[in-house]
Amino acid sequence: MALETTVIQNKLTDTFGEKVSGFIQQHDIFSFEVAPYAMSEVMGYLKNDPVLRFNFLTDVCGVHYPDSEKDRQFAVVYHMHNWYDNVRIRFKCFLNGDNPEIATATDHFLSANWQERETYDFYGIIFKGHPQLKRILNMDEMVSFPMRKEFPLEDGGRTDKDDRFFGRTPDNC
User: Fold this and answer.
1) What's this model's pTM, rounded to 2 decimal places?
2) pLDDT surpasses 70 at 10
3) All structural domains of the chain
């Protein structure tokens, strides 16, 4: 019998209460929020529970929401897969914009190592307990985090392009 989303939700809410919330089905993937301080505990439960068996961490990535309230300016998004029942889930942990920190997932999945380093490299999110949290794709000397939305999309001082060639005129900008 296939693993139903109601079973996932009921097991999580019965075990973790208010640490898990916002359950929703989006585009064939069951999604929810986890309190950041409970991420490791919830992930371990999802992986080791004999019914849930989410034994594969598909992805870890970051998101920057600069216009959100201070406690929700960053999110770490986790995608997990139950290969036995072919069910996928996604959960988000929202983090404080002044101090974006969360526990590492490498305690549960060694594959999280590279993904967390990439997320740190691009968003500056600190994964506490990570075995080697340092830049992985950008230069070590870099002081900014390029995927944060603190920077304008275009350089206003560029002189090598003409907006007319891109369909942008002063009338429609």
Assistant:
1) 0.87
2) yes
3) 5-143 (3.30.460.80)
DSSP type of residue 2: P
Could you give the CA distance from residue 151 to residue 166 in angstroms, rounded to a whole number?
21
User: Given phi > 0 = left and psi -120 to 50 = alpha, else beta, which region is 85?
Assistant: alpha
Beta strands in the chain (DSSP E): 20-26, 29-34, 56-64, 74-82, 87-95, 101-103, 126-128
Q: Which of 75, 76, 74, 70 is nearest to 57 (CA)?
A: 76
Backbone angles phi, psi at 29, to 5 degrees: -135, 130
Phi/psi at 166 (nearest 5 deg)? -110, 15
CA angle 12, 15, 20 (to 5 degrees): 45
Which pLDDT score is estimated for 58? 97
> Dihedral sign, CA of 38, 43, 48, 54?
positive
Q: Residue 97 above 60 pLDDT?
A: yes
Mean pLDDT (the chain) is: 91
> Residue 172 above 60 pLDDT?
no
**Taking the CA atoms of the chain, what radius of gyration do you get in angstroms?**
19
